[in-house]
Design goal:
Aminopeptidase, five-stranded antiparallel β-sheet, 8 strands, binds coenzyme A
Length: about 180
Amino acid sequence: MTEVISTERLALRPWEDSDVDFVFDLYSRWVVQRFIGTQPAVMDSRTQAIERVQRFKDLDHPVHGIWAITRKEDSQPVGTLLLKPIPASGEEPLQPSNDVEIGWHLHPDHWGNGYASEAATAVLEHAFAAGLEHVVAVTNPANEASQSVCRRIGMEHQGQSEKYYNDKCELFLVKNPAATS
Ligand SMILES: CC(C)(COP(=O)(O)OP(=O)(O)OC[C@H]1O[C@@H](n2cnc3c(N)ncnc32)[C@H](O)[C@@H]1OP(=O)(O)O)[C@@H](O)C(=O)NCCC(=O)NCCS
């Protein structure tokens, strides 16, 4: 069960069927999709949005989750925050590695407010409270906005890596501050 995570301005909650229109609006935009995946493509049908919301809801795990980031002041969804096993490079279909990644997809109407960083900071706290030793993030080398989020939330750049997604990515990592080694 994806638990609700609360921050000063945001509530991260499970996805609901009523979020389909927002999900379609978010993922049908090239500015959102252009750096996501090895072959970026925009969502082009509402049916895909229905399937995406279902996939988000299907991740049922005590620690991992895919949250709807919503603004507390008006309950408006503003984006997606993910914490899930990252696929290792290898033969398709890619299999999850032992590492857990954090990721964010914000609607462009809500960029520039610090929402991605605020939501991600809270999810890292949740991950570390649950005992994860470290969390990684990968970005397209050209995705400077996402790399800035990584740095803002205390992740360290590890250089480029081809360990994940059968792709060359900028790799970021943050260790659990409570870990002894
Ligand atoms: C990556 C992405 C989430 C970054 O969004 P963002 O809004 O720039 O990120 P943050 O939440 O960290 O906000 C930081 C910005 O808000 C500003 N800001 C305003 N109020 C703020 C506050 N209270 N706290 C922190 N930052 C604040 C910062 O100055 C900064 O603006 P700047 O970039 O002009 O300097 C967004 O570009 C996105 O969703 N892109 C498409 C999807 C994508 O590529 N995802 C990543 C795949 S790896």
